[in-house]
Recover the amino acids of this structure.
């Protein structure tokens, strides 16, 4: 299922809001409006394919990068990245993915935790070079495995990419910290990532009741975002929009991408990662890419 056209804030007239059936045929997901900005979140599974233990190699990295290229994402939150690991050929995974897309991206890596003799694990954000970056920060978040949020201020909006912890209490603390951090921001704020939490879970999730005090969900919510999961309880990858910064934002469409046409062939996203990519197309009043 894909979520289509909505205008914010909610006291404005909703021009169009359609849910269309997800077609089993591979799709192209073209941007349908001028000056559309495509925001995306994608858990890479360390580019080892859709299964465990999988295989860490450049071929899998190229395949995942081709998804980003085919979707022509403008700003991308990526999770499960590593850097300088001896056991992984000292690769800098975020830069490898960016280079393999063939698109000129600025890569912003969030070094979260140590790994393999001084290497690191973390998450990151890719931003097309055509979109000027005003500022960038790393926000430390709690976790049994240390976590960060990558905060990127652009000309017309702020984009925050993160990967919440599996520990329920640490996830709650992380949600509170992020909400506090962006509460006074006047620009539109988009939060994207693998939240390891779902608003469909019992009581509305663990961290989601906190997040939804300050944010609203703008990404597709039909079915799971975990590979092989079609139930809503398997939805843990989201794009959110800060509530009091939504004036002038038009959400055009959003999809959890389960199959994609790449170079004329249908590709099952479940073969490339254990998470599906999720994108949202937005128009921001006054914005020019």
């Amino acid at each position: 299922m894909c979520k289509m056209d909505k205008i914010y804030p909610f006291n404005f007239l909703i021009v169009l809001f359609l849910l269309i059936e997800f077609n089993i045929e591979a799709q192209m997901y073209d941007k349908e409006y001028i000056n559309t900005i495509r925001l995306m979140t994608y858990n890479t599974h360390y580019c080892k394919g859709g299964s465990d233990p999988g295989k860490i190699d450049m071929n899998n990295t190229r395949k995942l990068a081709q998804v980003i290229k085919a979707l022509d994402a403008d700003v991308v939150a990526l999770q499960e990245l590593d850097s300088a690991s001896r056991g992984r050929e000292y690769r800098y995974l975020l830069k490898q993915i960016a280079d393999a897309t063939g698109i000129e991206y600025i890569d912003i890596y969030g070094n979260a935790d140590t790994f393999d003799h001084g290497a690191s694990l973390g998450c990151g954000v890719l931003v097309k070079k055509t979109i000027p970056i005003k500022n960038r920060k790393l926000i430390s978040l709690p976790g049994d495995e240390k976590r960060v949020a990558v905060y990127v201020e652009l000309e017309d909006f702020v984009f925050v990419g993160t990967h919440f912890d599996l520990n329920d209490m640490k996830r709650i603390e992380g949600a509170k910290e992020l909400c506090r951090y962006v509460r006074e921001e006047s620009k539109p704020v988009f939060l994207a990532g693998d939240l390891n939490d779902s608003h469909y879970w019992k009581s509305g999730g663990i961290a989601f009741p906190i997040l939804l005090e300050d944010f609203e969900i703008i990404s597709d919510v039909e079915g799971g975002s975990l590979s092989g999961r079609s139930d809503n309880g398997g939805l843990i990858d989201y794009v959110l929009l800060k509530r009091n910064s939504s004036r002038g934002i038009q959400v055009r469409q959003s999809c959890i991408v389960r199959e994609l046409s790449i170079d004329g062939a249908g590709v099952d996203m479940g073969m490339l990662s254990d998470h599906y990519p999720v994108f949202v197309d937005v128009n921001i009043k006054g914005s020019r890419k």
Summary: The first strand starts at residue 2 and ends at 7. The chain has four helices and 16 strands. Residues 7-24 have pLDDT under 50 and may be disordered. The first helix runs from residue 58 to 71.
